[in-house]
Amino acid sequence: MRIANLNDRAVLLDGDRALDVERASDGRFPADPQRVYDDWEAFRAWAERADLSAAEPFDPAELGPPVPTPRQIFAIGLNYRDHAEEASLPHPEHLVVFTKFQSSLAGPHAQVPVPGDTVDYETELVIVLGRGGRDIDEADAWDHVAGLSVGQDISERTIQRRGPAAQFSLGKSYPNFAPFGPAVVSVDELADKNALTIRAELDGNGTGGPMTLQEGNTRDMIFSVPQTIAQLSEVVTLLPGDIIFTGTPAGVGMSKNLFLRPGHVLTSEIEGIGRLVNSFV
Fold it and tell me: What is the pLDDT of residue 128?
């Protein structure tokens, strides 16, 4: 099952075709992509049996963020060993958590305005919750996951590091600094939900052709998907439709003094889930 947001309407994707949820369910489920998580178990049961034969071709450029108005957005820092090492920081013993504000969410083909000279990229697996809760047991955590998506945690590093205390959430929340999608993919679609190849490449603005920026695997996360959900829920009440950016592997721009400029095109991809293609203006 692949749930997406096409022109602000919930759809199920089937290759290059999309099935409108409200129409196909005869109004049982609303058009608002966020609302499918309000009654997740019923929606999942319907979607798994939905007849996709009425799906129609669509323009991928018209896809928006698959979860457009989550009540909570979490982001995890330093969650890959090689990224912590490139930042010359110790591997964390506890989750490093910040947020990206909702107004930074964007679709998988969004243009991203560049507000400064130190705009950086971080390719990330995104968790979308179908069920919330408190004190979720790690062994049960996957049962709370609606699906996974691809995300970019874009940062303006100067603002992020502006003192006297770091401004992580502010520096990471400019317009379109959280593109994600193209869909929320249920884990039964994935060969191994715990080990997904994750990569990014950059083109345009003098790169001389596509150049690989990041290449890693989600199995190398310090805190796995179940550990992340369990530890967050020790403190926070998680809600259906919440999203969690889970951190990035090594290769970020700050480590190599390579920052995003107008004219760059950034492609971010996770095995079995899909890709983002974002241009910078």
Answer: 98
91 Cβ neighbours under 8 A, 6+ residues apart:
78, 81, 84, 222
DSSP secondary structure letters along 151-184: EE--EEHHHHT-SSS--HHHHT-STT-EEEEEEE
User: Can you say whether the dihedral through the CA atoms of 258, 261, 99, 129 is positive or negative?
Assistant: negative
Predicted confidence (pLDDT) at residue 89 exceeds the cutoff of 90: no
Residues 223 and 238 in one domain: yes
Domain limits for position 31 = 2-58
Question: Residue 88: is its pLDDT beyond 90?
Answer: no
Which residues lie below 8 Å from residue 262, measured CB to CB, with a gap of 6+? 114, 205, 280, 281
17 plus 142 within the same structural domain? no
Number of domains in the chain: 2
Q: Is the pLDDT of residue 209 over 90?
A: no
Q: How many CB atoms neighbour CB 106 within 10 A?
A: 23
Tokens describing residue 177: 């600094």
Question: What global pTM score does this model have?
Answer: 0.97
Residues 90 and 129 in one domain: yes
Asked whether the beta carbons of 219 and 193 are under 8 A apart, the reply is: no
* Nearest in space to 74 (alpha carbons), one of 222, 200, 233, 221: 233
Please state, rounded to an integer, the average pLDDT across all residues of the chain.
96
127 touches 119 (CB < 8 A): no
22 CB neighbour count, 10 Å cutoff? 16
Both 50 and 70 in a single domain?
no
Task: Give 212-249 as a DSSP string.
Answer: EEEEEEGGGBSS-HHHHHHHHHTTS-B-TT-EEE----
